[in-house]
UniProtKB/TrEMBL annotation:
Role, per record: DNA-dependent ATPase involved in processing of recombination intermediates, plays a role in repairing DNA breaks. Stimulates the branch migration of RecA-mediated strand transfer reactions, allowing the 3' invading strand to extend heteroduplex DNA faster. Binds ssDNA in the presence of ADP but not other nucleotides, has ATPase activity that is stimulated by ssDNA and various branched DNA structures, but inhibited by SSB. Does not have RecA's homology-searching function.
Superkingdom to which the source organism belongs: Bacteria
Family membership noted in the UniProt record: Belongs to the RecA family. RadA subfamily.
Species annotation: Nesterenkonia rhizosphaerae
Zinc-finger is among the record's keywords: yes
Signal peptide region: none
Name assigned to this protein: DNA repair protein RadA
Protein residues bound to ATP: G94, E95, P96, G97, V98, G99, K100, S101
Record NCBIfam families: sms (TIGR00416)
Key word Glycoprotein present: no
Length: 456
């Protein structure tokens, strides 16, 4: 007998996978709680008799309504591409306690002061209005045209928008807002989708900039459906270590500007302060030459940042010497230690403990810092300091070769601006890129770089 074909009744809202029975986790995209029952489609949408807004030629479209409006916070404007765009929807995500609410409260106050012709609305679902005002008083973010409202219902939030008619609306956070017309608890996939769609519709209809605060999961991903990131215009990640004052703002997605820039902030008791030149935070203040320290320049997007790598090598009586790493990729540091042992003949590292860390809590992940890490470890092992005003950058391979890195000219220009006079870089990369007053030596391998610095 021919087998009857079963029609799938459930579908994953993340990837579209279909099944005949409900499961808690989608086996295709591994998302939890995304499998929902498919609705019965009984009719198709038909075309309207006439378009409400007739199409125009691209030359006749007025683009002045979508111009950037500066917020008054330089680092925020840098990441957004120039400021806030009317009608844009921005998603701001970050770990708890990193400073998202503080940054947005300062931005709301700055916009209300800079553009007093229209009010700014701050909707909070996590705190009361009195709590938000207390924080605003502490960070000096009070403004006459800044309105506060504690709402957790989507209908009430939309009513507040209709009454205030703001130029900028901040919703803190999208996971705390829920609609009474949709099933599910606040923060669920269905509720987040409904809340986001309603806020986007209000933003586009009123030509109002909207910033949505989003929570993150324990893996660092934005909580909720992946569709949330596709619906909004800009997705920003606010990062920082709880034990450090430095905060970094990145644009993961930006329809109006670049996504390869980063904003730097200093978190203090008075709020967040923009850092136009944060290089001094990542370099120690010691003036005496000490073995085991090397300066490098990393690229955060298009922005060069100076960082210092410190290493300490000590004798060990244990059969397996300890390796401790802070602020760097631990497997990569282990690889560089092995390269130093075999290619540079530093066999003393086999029976020595090695401690490698960065200054100021900065995290370095790009391979361009390999050469500076290796030189810092070699300097500590040989107990010989590196020269003054010296830096190095380059990727080190398993064969001991030093490979080229991107953005060499920007790195050298930043080094010359900060007063560095000597640098070691990969071979065949400095054509017309050496700033005046700097001495740059090219090396093709790690042993060649060690021979230049430690001739004996």
């Amino acid at each position: 007998m021919a087998k009857s074909k079963t029609t799938p009744k459930f579908e994953c809202t993340e990837c579209g996978w279909q099944t005949v029975k409900w499961v808690g986790r989608c086996p295709e995209c591994q998302a939890w709680g995304s499998v929902e029952e498919k609705g019965q489609v009984t009719a198709r949408t038909t075309a309207a008799r006439s378009a409400a807004a007739p199409a125009k030629t691209i030359a006749d479209v007025d683009s002045s309504v979508a111009e950037f409006r500066a917020t008054g916070i330089g680092e925020l404007d840098r990441v957004l591409g120039g400021g806030l765009v009317p009608g844009a929807v921005i998603l701001m995500a970050g770990e708890p306690g990193v400073g998202k609410s503080t940054l947005l409260l300062q931005a709301a106050s700055a916009v209300a002061r800079t553009h007093p012709e229209q009010p700014v609305l701050y909707l909070t679902g996590e705190e009361s209005a009195a709590q938000v005002k207390k924080r605003a008083e502490r960070i000096d973010s009070l403004a006459d045209k800044l309105y506060l409202a504690a709402e957790s219902d989507l209908g009430q939030a939309l009513a507040q928008i209709e009454e205030v008619a703001p130029q900028l609306t901040i919703m803190d956070s999208v996971q705390t807002l829920s609609s009474a017309e949709v099933d599910g608890a606040a923060g669920g996939v269905t509720q987040i989708r409904e809340v986001t769609a309603a806020m986007i519709e209000a933003a586009k209809r009123r030509n109002m900039t909207t910033i949505l605060v989003g929570h993150v999961t324990k893996d660092g991903n934005i909580a909720g459906p992946r569709m949330l990131e596709h619906l909004v215009d800009v997705v920003c990640q606010f990062e920082g270590d709880r034990h450090s004052r430095l905060r970094l703002l990145r644009a993961v997605k930006n329809r109006y500007g670049p996504t390869d820039d980063v904003g730097c902030f200093d978190l203090g008791e008075d709020g967040l302060t923009s850092l136009s030149d944060p290089s001094g935070l990542f370099v120690s203040a010691m003036t005496e030459r000490v073995p085991g320290t090397c300066i490098t320049i990393t690229l955060e997007g298009r922005r060069p940042l100076t960082a210092e790598v410190q290493a300490l090598v000590a004798e060990s009586q244990a059969s397996q010497p300890r390796r401790a790493v802070s602020g760097l990729d631990s497997p990569r540091v282990s690889m560089l230690l092995a390269v130093l042992q075999r290619r540079a003949k530093l066999t003393a590292l086999m029976k020595s403990e090695a401690y490698v860390a960065t200054v100021g809590g900065v995290k370095i992940t790009e391979p361009a810092a390999d050469l500076s890490i290796a030189l810092a470890v070699a300097s500590a092992a040989l107990e010989k300091p590196l020269p003054n005003r010296f830096l190095a950058f380059g990727e080190v391979g398993l064969a001991g070769e030093v490979r080229p890195v991107s953005g060499l000219q920007r790195r050298l220009q930043e080094a010359a601006r900060l007063g560095f006079t000597h640098a070691i870089v990969p071979k065949n990369t400095t054509d017309n890129a050496v700033p005046e007053g700097m001495t740059v030596r090219e090396v093709g391998s790690l042993p060649e770089a060690l021979a230049l610095l430690f001739k004996d």
